[in-house]
Amino acid sequence: MPNLPTVLRPIEELRERHSSKWRRFNRDVLPMHVAEMDYEIAPGIKSVLIDFVTRSDLGYTGPVPEVGETFAGFAKRHWSWTVEPKDVRLATDVGVAAVEILRAAGNAGDKVLVNAPVYSAFYHWIEEVGMEAVNAPLIRESVGGPTEEEPDSFEKSVTVWRLDLAAIEKAFKAGVKLYLLCNPHNPVGRMHTRAELEAVAQLADKYGVLVISDEIHAPMAFPGETFTPYLDVSDEAKRTGVTVTAASKTFNLAGLKASIIVIQSDEVRVKLAKLPEAMHWRTSLLGAFAMAEAFENGDAWLKGTMMTLADSRKLLAAEIAEKLPTVDFHLPENGYLAWLDLTSLNLGDKPAALLLTKEKVAFVPGEDHGKGYEQFVRINFACRPASIRAAIDKIANQAAKAARK
């Protein structure tokens, strides 16, 4: 089957959509914030939804063995990960799954490890269950560029982010028993290596920690990059981990409310014995069957979408290099979110708020991802090329005004 083209409607039509991306701000704001693509959904998914509505098949969610069966096939094709369908269960969405896992495995007042900068909802989930977030920040370092051996090198340094294993172990030693792992990492677009995840699993096994691996962006690796499922790295990972994921980010189905939990060991099943059965029944019938369709027949659409996103990523990098050369930018290995450090532009204490007010462009503010990241913004580039250019132009415009002061 040939790659399916990514269709983009005119922005005037996109503004008629009913999702948060298009309703959170006024119509004159360019929305580059929430993790939602502007692309058309896969034809097969559209057909499934139309068929269910046409037949008035909109009752309560019953058994859906198709989800476990199709995810097992998807995991084997994409990551050579062997998953038994019986190890897969439905949940309302990834957020609900994470909250219920925290409730089942811990108690109010417990500490939960995160790696800032990290997806802002992690903090809200932890707060919802009365727990406390503990931070082991990602290590940020520059790779390449001039060195002592080659001080005249013209090679430009590249920023990379990685897990701080020493800080993670320190937190585990201090008594942290729950770890919300973002894999791939949002907002920096990093896919943790197999070696890193093996080390995490060894530490979790040593200190009795439950690793909750949020892998919602997993299928969206760019060519040449490799995603590694946490549960696939070792027996220690299986003994210490639970995966939460969905088709919602990859196939643009967030509004359908369906996700999955994957458990591959008796040890974790015992820890999560209190998970409510109602998670299954609170899942959308349409969402469950759309997810099954995505996992079974969505590969061609996904391949075409990733080709489009690769072009958008290239365009974003070129625009930043030309118009914002001092902005530090990590080229994402996965997905459609980019993490920009605007410190050099001198846009004040809260650049995202300034850009929203003065330029009518919405980014996710850096501070939403953790303290100390106020000078960053997260940008969604799964949109029209014209929107990418306009967003960078708006930042450059404010940078020019700041430079003239």
3D architecture notes:
The chain is an alpha/beta fold. The protein has two domains: 11-42 and 300-404, Aspartate Aminotransferase, domain 1, CATH 3.90.1150; 48-298, Type I PLP-dependent aspartate aminotransferase-like (Major domain) (Aspartate Aminotransferase, domain 2, 3-Layer(aba) Sandwich). It contains 16 helices and 15 strands. The protein has a seven-stranded mixed sheet, with helices on both faces. Helix 3 runs antiparallel to helix 13 (285-297), helix 4 (65-79) runs parallel beside helix 13 (285-297) and helix 5 crosses helix 6. The chain is globular, with a radius of gyration of 21 Å. It starts with 10 loop residues before the first helix and ends with a helix.
Number of helices: 16
Cα-based radius of gyration, to the nearest Å: 21 Å
**Silhouette:** globular
Structural category is alpha/beta
Largest β-sheet summary: 7 strands, mixed
In terms of DSSP E residues, the strand content is 5-15%
Total strands: the figure is 15
CATH architecture of the largest domain: 3-Layer(aba) Sandwich
Supply the CATH class of the largest domain. Answer: Alpha Beta
Question: Could you name the key traits of this structure?
Answer:
four-stranded antiparallel β-sheet; alpha/beta; seven-stranded mixed β-sheet; 405 residues; 16 helices; 15% strand; single chain; Aspartate Aminotransferase, domain 2; Aspartate Aminotransferase, domain 1
